[in-house]
């Protein structure tokens, strides 16, 4: 297996101006006729090399003449054609079998419907082509099928339709915008259709069509409304309008990821389309809106301007994630969005950086591109875009974006092209900043603080900020980064200070050397520096603040995010204390501090709810090394138990003061439900409050509260949990998306018979290994979130997951490669864990026929 390197990029040897596809659908014998107009680029006599994967080639002709055997060679992965012509029409016919395609890449059947997934390199599983994002072509596609398949869709606008014969019909589509083949899509099936329309600012009318499984129409309404909000927002904030007459979204049940931004024809995992009050939680609604927006925003950042090569993936993904985050913040609330995204960074991205898969947001080396749709490329990529936004300000950022579109509309470009467009909009020199694209790893910012007394009862405070990025598996040398550090200096009364040198500007200081120093004069001997406020850069902070200082931040920081963050640090501290001495009791001072915090925020349920969340086990792992899982889980559990006992009265008050009202999906109602359910989960740890959990389960009129009760029941007696789960299953047996929640709750239970439980789940009539949503909800939830059982010291959890992955890999390598992640992240754990994890990784590596997806991650983690 050969890795590709970013440094080896060569421009394409040929261009393909137009692609004409004629596809006759059949489960095992789909026929593809592809007619390409090809032009040689420049002066060379290299053959035309096309990618192909799992295809059976039938015929090849150039300008109407069939090629003889010595004019081409064909292998498992390539078709090489020798010709001296500089311009010619190439016609290829081949056959594929969508029904046998369980990897869900290329053309496959989802339920009864045909659909495609081409990004990153799936088009080569449909026909021979230069399957790379810098070959842009205008597509005309004719879809032919039996009339039992009534709806035939492809990119662009429908231009013709009719009958082929009595039983067969066709629809012809034309997409005027040149695009790379990864944006090609075809869908054919029988759906329920929701229609709507949207008029752009400049007066263009766009038909909106949403295709869902029969009977699910009412669950598509919210997605369609979200789409219109996204279209409006992109016009208002970036001046970007939609550019075709029709925008289609299709929801399918079998899908490897969230959704796909194919030009004019998005294909979605039904999980990110279908939502109603009864079956979807507030989080589900949120996710639907943000994924709908994300794919829509790709129309400009991704489709109109695409990537030159796959190493540039963050060009479209980091930028589009940033755009969807800004949209969600505008639609819902900035604070809860920021907290949500920072949690993802700390829980998952930091873990990736600390693992053998560590890579810069623009990777240097790739074996299987699908492995690089990572939290680093996406979420850290978005944090890097956010820093541009912070440094340039909203107007500067907008100028940079405008320039980016002005320069590159219709092109396939690089991250450097983006940086250079941003550079044109600012006086700052972005040269050092651009290291964020090439350097991997999580920088650590350390804070030192010295206090001396000066004249007139004043004190001089000297602060030193330093940065260093620990070596990562892919890169041993690290250089200083250009880091915008949001900073607040406060005293116990809440007075704020700035530095004598005026290095702090608008609450921001730029740290670009290994370290920097500034001084503050104050009457107080006791100042608290709040460093990296609002997570102004994707970094860790080591700031040796006492619990007093953390509570001061909670009381006085202007930024609610920083108040939340101080609370998280405080909890982390307490848990560390319990790890060191398991029987210790957290001091009353701390409980009193938290009680005051609760009192202070009692009217701000949004912040209060978030502040009452204890950091997840996975987040705690990122500030620890040599982790003994049982000890850390025990400490976290002990803290949660003490928390519930010590704050029982306050928690009950919060719960009881939140008034119940009929369900509505508004920010205010969401905040209330969120806060109430966070509190309920704490109280559920006290046996006397089990009845509250049951009462909520019985009376809930929406999925958020039902699921909140079930999650809380995970802390109740197993009799209660089992009985609520059984009722839930009976109610929701017919709805696989809801059942996924039930699967996940079972799989994350810390119980001794967990493997028997999971085995049973896998035999559930609604479970199928071929369906990624089911596999993620059972096996994925177990591996990612059942830390105690996954990391059992006898190795049973690792072995269980490995046994499963060995089977799954043969069916769907992409999903297998996702779920193997926790196993490859052994670095932070104690040696006893590491040995067991590596043993299972070794079994994977030795497996005959292992996919290159899993091979890449496993071999790296054992290297
Ligand atoms: N661009 C797709 C992801 C494709 C993943 C390929 N394995 C969805 C998105 O990011 O919008
Ligand atoms: Zn995307």
Automatic annotation (TrEMBL):
SUPFAM superfamilies linked to this entry: Leukotriene A4 hydrolase N-terminal domain, Metalloproteases ('zincins'), catalytic domain
Pfam families with a match to the protein in the record: DUF3458, DUF3458_C, Peptidase_M1, Peptidase_M1_N
Keyword Zinc among UniProt keywords: yes
Domain of life: Bacteria
Catalytic reaction annotation: Release of an N-terminal amino acid, Xaa-|-Yaa- from a peptide, amide or arylamide. Xaa is preferably Ala, but may be most amino acids including Pro (slow action). When a terminal hydrophobic residue is followed by a prolyl residue, the two may be released as an intact Xaa-Pro dipeptide
Protein name, as recorded: Aminopeptidase N
Occurrences of domain Aminopeptidase N-like N-terminal (ranges): 21-183
Cofactor: Zn(2+)
């Amino acid at each position: 297996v050969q890795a590709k390197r970013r440094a080896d990029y060569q421009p394409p040897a040929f261009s393909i101006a137009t692609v004409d596809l004629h596809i006759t659908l059949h489960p095992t014998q789909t026929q593809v006729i592809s007619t390409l107009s090809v032009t040689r680029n420049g002066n060379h006599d290299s053959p035309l090399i096309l990618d192909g994967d799992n295809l059976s080639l039938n015929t090849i002709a150039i300008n109407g003449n069939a090629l003889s055997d010595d004019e081409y060679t064909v292998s498992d992965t390539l078709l090489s054609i020798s010709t001296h012509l500089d311009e010619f029409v190439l016609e290829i016919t081949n056959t594929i079998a969508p029904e046998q395609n369980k990897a869900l890449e290329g053309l496959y059947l989802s339920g009864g419907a045909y659909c495609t997934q081409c990004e990153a390199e799936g088009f080569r599983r449909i026909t021979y082509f230069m399957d790379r994002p810098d070959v842009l072509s205008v597509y005309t596609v004719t879809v032919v099928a039996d009339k039992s398949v009534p709806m035939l869709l492809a990119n662009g606008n429908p231009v013709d339709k009719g009958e082929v014969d009595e039983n067969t019909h066709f629809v012809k589509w034309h997409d005027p915008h040149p695009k790379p083949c990864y944006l090609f899509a075809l869908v054919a099936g029988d759906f329920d259709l929701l229609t709507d329309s949207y008029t752009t600012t400049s007066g263009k009318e766009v038909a909106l069509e949403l295709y869902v499984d029969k009977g699910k129409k009412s669950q598509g309404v919210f997605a369609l409304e979200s789409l219109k909000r996204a279209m409006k927002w992109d016009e208002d904030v970036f001046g970007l309008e939609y550019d075709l007459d029709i925008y289609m979204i299709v929801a399918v049940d079998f899908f490897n990821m969230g959704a796909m931004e194919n030009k004019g024809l998005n294909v979605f995992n039904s999980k990110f389309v279908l939502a109603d009050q009864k079956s979807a939680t507030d989080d589900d609604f949120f996710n639907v809106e943000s994924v709908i927006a994300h794919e829509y925003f790709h129309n400009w950042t991704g489709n109109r301007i695409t990537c030159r090569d796959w190493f540039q993936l963050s060009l479209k993904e980091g930028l589009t994630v940033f755009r969807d985050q800004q949209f969600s913040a505008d639609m819902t609330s900035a604070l809860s969005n920021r907290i949500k995204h920072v949690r993802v960074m700390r829980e998952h991205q930091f873990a990736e950086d600390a693992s053998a898969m560590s890579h810069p947001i623009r990777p240097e080396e790739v074996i299987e591109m699908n492995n690089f749709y990572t939290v680093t490329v996406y979420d850290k990529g978005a944090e890097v875009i956010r820093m541009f936004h912070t440094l340039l300000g909203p107007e500067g950022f907008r100028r940079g974006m405008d320039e980016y579109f002005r320069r590159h509309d219709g092109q396939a470009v690089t991250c450097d092209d983006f940086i250079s467009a941003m550079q044109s909009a600012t006086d700052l020199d972005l040269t050092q900043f651009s290291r964020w694209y090439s350097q991997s790893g999580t920088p650590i910012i350390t804070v030192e603080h010295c206090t001396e007394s000066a004249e007139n009862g004043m004190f001089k405070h000297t602060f030193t900020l330093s940065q260093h990025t620990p070596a990562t598996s892919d890169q041993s040398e690290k250089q200083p980064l250009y880091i915008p550090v949001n900073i607040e200096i406060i005293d116990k009364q809440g007075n704020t200070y700035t530095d004598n040198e005026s290095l702090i500007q608008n609450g921001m200081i730029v740290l670009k050397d290994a370290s920097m120093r500034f001084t503050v004069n104050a009457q107080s001997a006791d100042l608290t520096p709040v460093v990296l406020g609002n997570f102004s850069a994707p970094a860790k902070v080591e700031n040796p603040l006492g619990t007093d200082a953390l509570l001061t931040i909670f009381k006085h920081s202007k930024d609610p995010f920083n108040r939340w963050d101080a609370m998280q640090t405080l909890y982390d501290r307490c848990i560390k204390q319990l790890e060191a001495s398991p029987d210790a009791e957290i001091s009353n001072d701390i409980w009193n501090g938290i009680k005051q915090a609760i009192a202070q925020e009692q009217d701000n349920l949004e912040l209060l709810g978030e502040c009452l969340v204890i950091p997840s086990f996975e987040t705690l792992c990122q500030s620890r090394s040599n982790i003994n899982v049982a000890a850390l889980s025990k400490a976290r559990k002990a803290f949660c138990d003490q928390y519930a006992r010590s704050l029982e009265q306050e928690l009950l008050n919060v719960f009881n003061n939140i008034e119940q009202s009929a369900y509505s999906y508004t920010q205010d109602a969401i905040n209330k439900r969120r806060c109430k359910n966070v509190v309920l989960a704490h109280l559920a740890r006290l046996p006397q409050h089990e009845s509250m959990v049951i009462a909520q389960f019985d009376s809930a009129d929406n999925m958020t509260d039902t699921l909140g009760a079930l999650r809380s029941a995970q802390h109740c007696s197993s009799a209660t949990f089992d009985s609520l789960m059984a009722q839930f299953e009976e109610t929701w047996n017919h709805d696989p998306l809801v059942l996924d929640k039930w699967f996940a709750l079972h799989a994350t239970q810390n119980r001794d018979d967990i493997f028997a439980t999971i085995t049973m789940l896998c035999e559930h009539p609604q479970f199928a290994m071929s369906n990624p949503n089911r596999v993620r909800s059972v096996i994925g939830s177990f591996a990612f979130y059942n830390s105690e059982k996954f990391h059992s010291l006898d190795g049973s959890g690792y072995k269980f997951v490995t046994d499963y992955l060995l089977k799954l890999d043969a069916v769907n390598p992409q999903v297998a490669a996702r779920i193997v992640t926790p196993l490859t992240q052994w670095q932070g754990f104690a040696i006893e864990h590491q040995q067991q994890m590596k043993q299972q990784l070794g079994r994977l590596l030795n497996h005959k026929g292992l996919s290159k997806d899993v091979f890449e991650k496993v071999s790296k983690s054992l290297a």
